[in-house]
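Inputs:
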Amino acid sequence: MSNRLFSLGNISARWVLGKVLTDLLILLTTVLIIDKVAYIVGLVVLGTITRELLYSAVVIMVIILICRIVLSWGSSSIAFRISAKVKLMIRDRIYSKLLNIELDYRDAKKTGALVTTTIEGVEALGIFYGRFFPQLFLSILIPAALYCYLSFYTQQIAMILILCVPIIPISIGLVQRWVRRVSKTHWHTYEDLNAYFLDSIQGITTLKLLGLTNRRTEKISQKSWDFRNKTMKLLYTNLTSLLVMDLIALLGTALGITLALLYFESGMIPLPVAILVLLISYEFFRPLRQLGSYFHFAMQGISASKSILEILNQSEEFENTSEGEKCVPGVNHDIKFKEVWYSYGTNTSIILRGVSFIAKTGKITAIVGQSGSGKTTIADLITMLYKPQSGQILIGDRDIQTINREELRHQIAMVPQNPFLFYGSIRDNLLIAKPSATDNELNLVCKKAGILNFINSLPRRLDSSLTEQAKNISKGQIQRIAIARALLKDSPILILDEPTSNIDAGNEVTFLQTLKQIAMMKTTILITHRLSTILDSDRIVVIDDGIIVDEGIHNELIARDGVYAELFHDQAMNDPLYRTMMIEK
Amino acid sequence: MDDKIDTKTSFKVDSTNRMSRLLIIRRLLGMVSPVRQLMVIAIIFGVFNHLANIALMVWGAYLISSVFIEGPLSITLLDISLLFVLGGIKALSSYVEQNKNHDVAFRLLAHLRTELYRHLEPLTPAKLIDKRSGDLGLAVSSDIELIEVFFAHTISPVSIAAIVSVITLTLLGTWWIILPFVLLPFLILLGIILPLTWDGFLNSCGHQIRSEMVETNAYLTDSLQGFKTILQFNQGEIRRQGISERGSRINHLNQQYASREGLLLGLVGAIVFLADIVMLIVATEGVLAGILSVQGIIIVVIITISSFGPITAVSMVSHHLSQTFAAAERLFNLMDEEPAIIETPDCSSILPHRFDIEFKNVTFSYSPNSSPIIKNFNFQAAQNTIVALLGNSGCGKSTVLKLLLRFWEIESGEITIGGVNIKSICLKDLHSMISVVAPDSHLFDTTIRENIAIGNPSANMDRIIECTKKAQIHCFIMSLPKGYDTSIGELGDKLSGGECQRIIISRALMADTPILLLDEPTSFLDSINENAIQNLVNDLSKERTVILITHRLSSHAQVDRIFLMSEGKCQDILSDNLDDSEQYVSWKHMTS
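Outputs:
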């Protein structure tokens, strides 16, 4: 585990060395001051003290003190530098990993848990790298340095004290086995609590309406207490190991004092050395004791690292072909599905069972079918959000697997069923489709999407802010902004998934007229259940339970009296527009 | 709608209301009273811990000086074993102290988390609509975690430092009366002056770090929830940069924070050693002047050196408190937010006898100084009928529902259910009469079964299936590998809009309330399912009041009355003579 943890951080050895050296110098200042104190006390006791000796020692001590302030400042800054670099890098790696692994993983992970890991988990890991890691070296180096120093005065006591030091890691190693078991579940409980809290807040209005906030509050309380209990358990184990350390450190100190006493009694060391040993014994054990207290902080980082590693160790589902031909060649952007099979995961029900169809350039291809028949999956497969288990998807005769993913997505504009708008202004949300767009362009696409009047009615127009998930505007308005965004992208392929489900008929008509015009230059796939939107399409693909059951134009399909007729007969008979059309014919 | 967007800026100002330090400390201390006893135990053992430490060193010094004065062989085995006993006492009391301190802290944190959620309920949705959930959910969590510093590492160390310092000063006084007065200024400097002024020196650094962390949290939440869109628009790199930029900003702030911590650490260390040196000088002068004995100087110096533990803990914690107070301030501001709706004090829990709904001359705007979104609105829905509210998207249809649910207070007019003004009904009871199927109804990250039978864990499975069958979603659920036990979270984006709608409809059916509000319930459904749902609604209306909000009236809807809404006003059309109604025909013509 630890090895992977260190490779994860990829920390700079130079800075760690810097931190260790600075801390050793800080130790040196401490020792020098204690040494001077013991020296003066010794002189006083022996009666040989003079003011001159006293004040010259004081001057030296004050100089050392000033150095100590600077060193201490330096030590913290270096620790920060180490962790800052690591934190930036790990967060970056997590997000770029998420961008490259299959969407299934992202789908299954709770947002709350991911955010907790990426923000707080990495923050805790920062402490691990900046403080705990250098301290590991210090806990070996400091006792060694003290040993060397003390051996000038009394080799035997120095030897006995340094021999006591390894008892700490050995006994901690025994305690740690127990700690590890507890810490495993701890971070997961925290992630889970945060995910639950986020879910509770996002659904708070629904809960309020159902009169369930009290019950939810109870559940939060229960989960919070559960987390508290887990934290306490972890803490008990940590405190227990601290207790073991403290006991060894303090009994070691007591031993040091006893030795000083006995050696002094038998005349083997002079009084100042006895006082020095008294004051310095504890310093032998301090670095390990400190390591223990950092461990308390680093614990969170270590348990978070498991979640982080879980993300980073996901295999990248898609080999992104960054080399090879970059562009989809020519004007041919026909989309071909050849015997495409798809199921989410391996043991779930099959969504697509050998789907084959062609969507031609310059035409509108409608995909219709009952809700849940696999229509949306087709769109997700074209944009390579998911990968089919078998079969081929071609764009302009090229297998999309061989096309660079960014390039492929660049060729496709999409209006999903539940469009997502980001926190920020309407303008920000539109500009992600084309960062260089001018105001005129923005106004034009908004007009085409039938949203311009609404935007202009807002006090800050395009610069009006949207709240998270655009909760401050209606679903219909979200949908029209998403349409405007897709139109702005102006890419050769346009995929619309139920684009007018929340749009009133008036705006729908305007939009469909626009669509008819722009579709002449593009490959357009229209997923819909609305008859009024289908009537304009050039070809209709009917999908039922993952299989293409029929293809053709509206009149043909109605005449065949199959699934399509069943789906639309009713709508057709009641739609005044359609009735008039039929009468005209 | 525009008004909702407008109010946003004014909110931000509110929520960054700065509170005084003293007030924050008072409120935090107020929370401790239920666990006072634990805290006292922690303090007692903390005092033991530090006194044992001082005693260990002083006893050692005393023994050494005794040997010096009285010569060898003056030390007994008992004297030596006392050293080990003191060491053991220190270790054990430190354990108990830490244990109790954290026990207090984590108890309070669990309590605080729950309390906070309780406070959010009355605020929803009017006051929460423009808060980011990253801001609310996760940042709140880490804010709460930060308060641990106050509960576990501030209250008892301050008390311990005070007690131990008094004892130390008294001890020194017994050797020479001048000594406590020499040491006292250093203790005051470390324990009082430094902690109080350090905060000003940090220059609201803690506050900035907290705000930046919150922003990053929200940004990341947004970047994860909009993941599909990010991929489709190739925004991955840009978002990644955004995350890095925010990380760098946090790092930049942390750099100032960390280097100041280093400075504080250096400063505290220097003051401690300076105190040691000054005491050494004074004690030496004391010996030279013949006031202090030789044993005196040894013990005085050792007491001084070993007595700074608790007081340095106090000075160091002041650095971390800067962030803790910022976190506490954010939490208190949130908890202090005034709800938009204040429950009528003498509200009634008795439900009305009938469930006819009426809006009389209702006028409403989202903020007081903007033009009303609903003006002199009149509307009736009789019991056992379906009333449709038609209108273009954004005309205020959904607002009507929110007013009926009393999410906002109306400016003038009256809304009644069965002749009873909804203001006189307790909010809880008002909501218990009404089921809502709306585009923003939330599906929770739990199993489908629990989402449908929400709040009723003992719900009969047969009844659940009855509801899902009616909502045309049973077959879909059964096709999932884990059926009703499939988690919504696992499905993620794979759940289509139509499927979500039908699960939410099943939930409303389970609730079985006398009033049913449907806001675009079939917008994602194909016509077969739409017809089935519409027939279901027709059926339900036989014993309920149903209000159907839509921009497109299904051919199967047997509505009894239609209200056509535009620009906040309403025109009543009787559905019997729909085709005779000029307004309806012109609206239909205009929209189809």
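Remarks. Residues 418-490 of chain A form a domain with the Rossmann fold fold (CATH 3.40.50.300). The mean pLDDT of chain A is 80.
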